[in-house]
Design a protein that fits this description.
Layout (H helix, E strand, L loop, with lengths): L10 H12 L4 H13 L3 H11 L8 H12 L9 E5 L2 E7 L2 H8 L9 E4 L7 H12 L6 E3 L7 H9 L6 E3 L6 H9 L9 E3 L6 H10 L8 E3 L7 H8 L9 E3 L6 H9 L9 E3 L23 E3 L5 H5 L16
């Protein structure tokens, strides 16, 4: 039985934990587990019981809740570089500055159900040396959500994340310096096949990087893709528009690029984007012509769009463009 924390479990607790790993929404099983923990004198049981009756962390039971949290965190309670978010008596999300601190968190029984880990090393000269051991520790956990935003990582980070043997459903690499090479490395990672949300905002990946992502057929589970501010042109937009395996996308952000009229028309005519509801196109050098539908295009049912840097006359074309007719948010 794989463990999320560096401590042994009794056979009885292991049975509870295994069931909850497989059935995380089983409320009755959580209550039974909480009762068992209270019988053992474990503060997780008390905290879990409070969560079941008072989900508001700032509610009436706040003082009692904070007392249990301090007990569970032990020496980490006074560490201001560590941020934790709780759910049902356990840590759901943790934000740490390095692998050493993450190791201390994972050693806590409260980290058994850890879902998301965030690394905060922005501006650190040691960020490259920090990422490798950080990812290595996560391989032995059940973390499925990884947040590496604003860490100053270069293209090598793409290769390191791609080599991490930890299946993910969420990956946030926003505001780094991955470049084309980093994006290509990430796109080739088969273990990212289950990723549903991918953030690559402000990474200067360019059209070649986007083309690599668009050609990665194993990324067919993606529902949200953020490519804001990545020096993309029409070729990048066309690559995405031709990627039929991205048909599950419900949110696509291409704002602050330069896809132009050619790129936006390619997107408007992509028949496989039937699930797309949120489309970001702000500041993409669009003209009036770019906001007019082509007779050969089959519209996709976008319900919210962000389009700016267009002329007022172009905005009036919204009513005549079926793909944006139901837009509820329109910026000029």
């Amino acid at each position: 039985m794989a463990k999320s924390a560096a401590h042994s479990l009794s056979p009885e607790e292991a049975s509870h934990v295994r069931h909850l790993w497989d059935h995380p929404d089983d409320t009755d099983a959580w209550r039974v587990y909480g009762d068992w923990l209270q019988q053992q004198g474990d503060a997780r049981g008390e905290l879990l019981a409070l969560d079941m009756v008072d989900v508001d962390p700032y509610g009436p039971a706040r003082a009692q809740r904070e007392g249990h949290i301090a007990t569970l965190l032990d020496s980490l309670a006074s560490n201001r570089s560590v941020r934790v978010f709780w759910r049902r008596g356990h840590i759901r999300l943790v934000s740490v500055p390095d692998a050493k601190t993450l190791r201390l968190v994972l050693a806590l029984p409260a980290a058994l159900f850890l879902e998301e880990a965030r690394l905060t090393v922005g501006g650190s000269k040691k960020h490259k040396k920090t990422l490798r051991p950080f990812l290595k520790l996560l391989e032995a956990t059940r973390v499925t959500r990884l947040d590496l935003r604003e860490c100053g990582f270069d293209s090598s980070a793409g290769s390191l994340v791609a080599a991490c043997n930890r299946p993910l459903t969420y990956l946030n690499m926003n505001r780094n310096r991955l470049g084309t090479d980093g994006a290509v490395a990430l796109a080739g990672a088969q273990q990212l096949a289950g990723v549903r949300e991918l953030g690559l905002r402000e990474n200067r990946i360019g059209d070649k990087g986007v083309a690599a992502v668009a050609s990665a057929t194993h990324l067919r589970s993606l529902s949200s893709l953020d490519l804001d501010y990545n020096e993309l042109g029409a070729h990048g937009a066309e690559a995405i528009a031709s990627a039929e395996h991205l048909g599950s996308l419900t949110s696509l952000n291409l704002s602050l690029n330069a896809i132009g009229d050619v790129g936006v028309q390619a997107l408007a005519g992509a028949p496989h984007f039937s699930s797309l509801r949120h489309l970001g196109l702000a500041r993409n050098h669009l003209s009036v012509a770019g906001c007019r539908p082509s007779p050969t295009h089959r519209p996709c049912p976008v319900s919210r769009s962000w389009i700016s840097n267009t002329t007022r006359s172009a905005m009036k074309e919204r009513a005549r463009w079926p793909t944006l007719r139901n837009s509820s948010h329109w910026k000029s």
